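Exercise: predict the structure of this protein bound to S-adenosyl-L-homocysteine.
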Amino acid sequence: MPATAKPPEKMMFQLSLRRRGISDQAVLRAMEEIPRDIFVEPADRADAYRDSALGIACGQTISQPFVVAYMTEQLQLQKHHRVLEIGTGSGYQAAILSRLCSHLLTIERFRTLADSARARLKKLGCDNVEVMLGDGFDIPASAGNFDRIIVTAAMEKIPDALTQRLEPGGILIAPVGPHQSVQTLIRVIRTDAGLDRKGLVDVRFVPALPGIAREL
Ligand code: SAH
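Solution:
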């Protein structure tokens, strides 16, 4: 099967992102350039350009394209930014981010997912991405601080340990709310006055769980 989708599907993909309000040209370009079909399961290739989440290995999901684009847009990325992603999953969101920042550290608790995402990102030439097997609730101090943090798994609350990793002026985006239900996408900005917190839209993400996953 060819790695690229038929042009009409990709045209509709761009159109539906624009229709739903994504207007940042750099984000739209990244969404156009990164082939989503290589991040989905082979059986789902035909559905890769539909605006829906799909199942991947280890019972996890690749997020809906609109949500990927929306979260990326809300991060207001600049080329010099150091970015942290918690929840590598397929690596799709990481590939989009890699086009828009200087360095991305992405952390995944399943070794199977971390390994396959790393291989895909390498194949795409996303050389500024480091995929780490680890726990987003326990990030090594040596990783330093970040200009932007994106969490792509649902957290019941945003840990202080995470907001403390934000550089001044930094932005964090995370789905916050009960597991197995609807969450709210929360944006936190570190300002001189403290943390500025705002609810954006309702979303559904798989849960963020502590520790490295035990795999069979
Ligand atoms: N961003 C992904 C979608 C992520 S699904 C993509 O573009 O495909 C959420 C992912 O978060 C899952 O793979 C899950 O295993 C991972 N995850 C959950 N809790 C985590 C934690 N504490 N640390 C790191 N990864 C975590």
